[in-house]
Amino acid sequence: MLIRSDPFRDLDRLTQQMFAAMSRPSAIPMDVYRLGDDYLVHLDLPGVDPASIDLSVERDVLTVAAERRSPVADGTPMHIAERPSGRLSRRLHLGDALDSDRIEARYDAGVLTLRIPVTPAARPRRIAVHAPNTLTARSTPRALEA
């Protein structure tokens, strides 16, 4: 079996993994967009057991935590290890305009989707413009009458 390897790239990757493991859990990549009266958040969690996903809201912070287990037993030598394993987490600061009591979560094909509704008070609304039935004549300045 032939495996091409760039020692500098491998050293850089190993250094990043070492410092990331020492500092904090790996961040979870995400996309966020607004669709109508909801914000949709898609978080990539491939290979994660849905039972290990933990969602919690405290004040205005939504925390998503999960654990991805290594597919090999401890002590098994890895030739290439690029996929992060262990504890993963992401925190989202929710604004006052979002209804944290009605957040919905769905996990499908390695993607956790959150639907966060906008509060009714923060939704855009139309304001009616009322006009009088008859127009009143404007008075002209006296200087123009002469």
TrEMBL record:
Coiled coil: none annotated. InterPro entries: A-crystallin/Hsp20_dom, HSP20-like_chaperone, Small_HSP. PROSITE patterns: SHSP. Residues 21-132 form the SHSP domain. Belongs to the small heat shock protein (HSP20) family. This is 18 kDa antigen 2.
